[in-house]
Design a protein that fits this description.
With 335 residues, the chain is of the alpha/beta class. Helix content is 37%, strand content 18%. The protein has 10 helices and 16 strands. The strands form 4 sheets. Strands 6-5-4-7-10-15-16 form a 7-stranded mixed sheet. Strands 11-8-9-14 form a 4-stranded mixed sheet, with helices on one face. It has a 3-stranded antiparallel sheet with strand order 1-2-3, with helices on one face. A hairpin with a 4-residue loop joins strand 15 and strand 16 (328-329). Helix 1 packs antiparallel against helix 2 and helix 2 (51-64) packs antiparallel against helix 3. It starts with 8 loop residues before the first strand and ends in a 6-residue tail after the last strand. Bound molecules: 5-S-methyl-1-O-phosphono-5-thio-D-ribulose. Residues 46, 49-52, 91, 154, 156, 160-161, 166, 193, 232-234, 244-245, 310 line the site of 5-S-methyl-1-O-phosphono-5-thio-D-ribulose.
Length: 335
């Protein structure tokens, strides 16, 4: 199904099997569960993360909530819906996936195969994401020049999606077709999705790369080392304003200063046309211990107050194009 010898999310024998992303790249540990509460917790603590992957996992979790069909089914389903919807607020894919499963539930209340209908919906969402990743990769690669060096931020590959990735798949297809020769992966403080997860994926895919601390990006631009920046998205407003991992906005500003293309890559399901601008995006604040501890090692006083947004919003005027499974959108954005 995928390019490498690891599986990010798999559904087998009515159980979800996922790789625990908090342990990568040092330990490749898989968790197998059919408990929606365990999956909700996994999303909350970023064992499963990345907007499309969160959506896929939540769809399976919601379907699994009624595995023991009973008279309490309606109550259980609603509790599971609420619990999963409260895990992370920013990625719209979560709510889109939950609502897709809920629609099947609402329309088939009396069906004796309700559980299987919900599981089939979750499988469909997963398969759909695999297909979308391919289209995003194919569309995005058209924008790249031969032998480009790309900078990316956070993690957008197989780990972050149901398929081969969004921005990562553009990079991967670019590498395979000679359009990408080298990748710089931002470390992505504080949870290191770049230096841990993107590095893991680049290494598995055999793509030459270096990791760098987020604050080294400007120096790299100044040395004229970067041809394009490609990142993913957690939610895109109707005007193209884009929420993505904290630090993305900084890169977009740098791209404008150095006149370098700044691309967003995301499935159509990441576009939330119900909101007109990025001001309406709910930005998740994380616990301050994510700054005071790294992997259980305390690095500063935990009583220091901390500013902890998990995402920022890049204004649409800084975005060169939004690559989707449907097409590449150029500004002014209209979806
Ligand atoms: O907090 P995370 O690790 O879930 O944040 C993930 C990102 O910001 C990704 O860039 C985004 O979800 C796109 S994933 C294809």
């Amino acid at each position: 199904m995928t390019m490498s010898d690891f599986t990010s999310l798999k559904f087998e024998n009515n159980k979800l099997i996922y790789i625990n992303q908090t342990k990568l790249p040092l330990v490749e540990e898989y968790v197998t569960t059919d408990d929606y509460e365990r999956i909700a917790e996994a999303i909350e603590i970023l064992e499963i993360r990345g907007a499309p992957a969160i959506g896929v996992a939540a769809a399976y979790a919601l379907a699994l909530s009624i595995k023991n069909e009973s008279e309490e089914q309606h109550k259980t389903f609603n509790e599971a819906y609420q619990r999963l919807a409260e895990t992370r607020p920013t990625a719209v894919n979560l709510f889109w996936a939950l609502d897709s499963v809920k629609e099947i539930f609402d329309n088939n209340q009396t069906s004796s195969s309700l559980f299987f209908l919900l599981i089939n919906k979750a499988i469909e969402i997963h398969q759909d994401d695999i297909n979308k990743c391919e289209e995003i990769g194919n569309n995005g690669v058209e924008l790249l020049e031969k032998d480009s060096t790309i900078l990316t931020h956070c993690n957008t590959g197989q780990l972050a999606t149901g398929g081969n990735g969004t921005a990562f798949n553009v990079i991967k297809k670019g590498f395979e077709s000679g359009k990408v020769k080298f990748v710089y992966a931002d470390e992505t403080r504080p949870l290191l999705q770049g230096s841990r997860l993107t590095a893991f994926e680049l290494s598995k895919a055999g793509i030459p790369f270096e990791i760098l601390v987020d604050s080294a990006a400007a120096t790299l631009f100044a040395k004229e080392e970067i041809d394009a920046v490609i990142v993913g998205a957690d939610r895109i407003a109707a005007n193209g304003d884009t929420a993505n991992k904290i630090g993305t906005f900084n890169l977009a500003v740098l791209c404008q200063h150095f006149n370098i293309p700044f691309y967003i890559a995301a499935p159509i399901s990441t576009i939330d046309t119900s909101i007109s601008s990025g001001d309406e995006i709910n930005i998740e604040m994380r616990d301050q211990t994510e700054l005071s501890f790294i992997n259980d090692v305390q690095v500063t006083n935990s009583n220091y107050d901390a500013y902890t947004p998990a995402f920022d919003v890049t204004p649409n005027e800084l975005i060169t194009a939004i690559i989707t499974d449907r097409k590449n959108y150029q500004p002014p954005f209209s979806f």
